[in-house]
Amino acid sequence: MYMIIVGAGSIGASLIDIAVREKNNVVVIDANPERARCVQDRYDITVLSSNATSAETLREAGADRADSLVVTTSDDAVNLMVVSIAADLEISSIVSVVNDKEHAEFFRKLGANVMENPEEVVANYLYNVVKRPNVLDFTLLPQGAQVFRLDVSEKSPLVDRSILESRQRETVPKSMRILAIARDGELTLPEMDEVIQEGDVLTVFALERVSDELIDRLTG
User: Would you say 107 and 83 are in contact if contact means Cβ atoms under 8 Å apart?
Assistant: First the structure.
């Protein structure tokens, strides 16, 4: 892809690294000369130390041929202005960080995909790592939905039962789905007759917040 990334702070820097490693054609815009210079010194890409809220800057970055634009600054006013200009320039895919979730709807009305409040996402992840050591990964989705991975011990009520049996017994609530099972280094998409084994790592989707008591019971 031809990607324009606005902002080379902590989020932007990580995105730049991923995009470059995946061999995308990347142009970076950052108003901070020092950050722009650091990116230029590290990667063989085009870096503009300019104000991205200018349509001319986005045109200079190649908006007419860009597949996507991603805005990552910590200032929602700046992000919204960049998104608005990008929409006017008809960039097909526009993505933006939204630091205050109350602002998200403004971005969506302009056609942008949003990542709401990244600091809160990280905080939730860290909290769950501390409070739920048996939850290996945790992602909070819109409207309270969650995706996480569980390490199944020998004491789990899931062991030696099929997914269907655990659902029929309501060990696994109706609001939850087991999406994948990692076993012996392989990841599979299980059928309902798949039997859970001790040591399995389950990827689980839940429509609503899962209580600590249920997590403890499922992991054993």
Answer: yes
